[in-house]
Amino acid sequence: MSLEAIFPKETIIARLESTEKDELFEELVEIIHTAVPQMNRKEALDSLTERESKMTTGIMHNVAIPHALIPSMDKTIGAIGISEQGIDYDSLDKAPVYLVFMIIGAQGETEQHIQVLKELAGVLQIPGFVDRMRQCKTPSEISNFLRNSEESVSE
Questions:
Q1: Quick check: helix, strand or coil at residue 18?
Q2: What was the pLDDT predicted at 95?
Q3: CA nearest 37: which of 16, 2, 65, 10?
Q4: Dihedrals phi, psi of 83, to nearest 5 degrees
Q5: Which of 134, 144, 146 has its CA nearest to residue 14?
Q6: Nearest-angstrom CA–CA distance, 4 and 100
Q7: pLDDT tens, 60-108?
Q8: DSSP state of 72
Q9: According to the model, what pLDDT value does residue 155 have?
């Protein structure tokens, strides 16, 4: 499964409005809900918040990957958000987050969830990936950049 399929253009926000983690979760969950109306927003927010309380998903410099598996989903879908001003995320390195990949999957689909995280980790290891993605200005640019980056990793 490609990252482009997990993060469709409709769930990409090139300029996030959020400045705090709670607002960010609501903003990205809302865009996922628009794409997948059967997803229970409260269930997703509660699950993301619970996961975050165990350990931050602000895992590398300027990047966060909040993720959850919930009963109301029947597939895995994600949202990408780019923040110009940065989000206070309580990251491991205490730096603000500028690039967020949120992943919501179906409860019981742990293997697929792990596969998506693995694919994402592969592109995040590309030198300059984060800086170049932050320069993208539209959902189409972000989607194309992600697809090209994933293809370069799999070659």
A1: coil
A2: 87
A3: 10
A4: -110, 130
A5: 134
A6: 15
A7: 779 999 999 999 999 999 999 999 999 988 888 888 999 999 999 999 8
A8: T
A9: 63
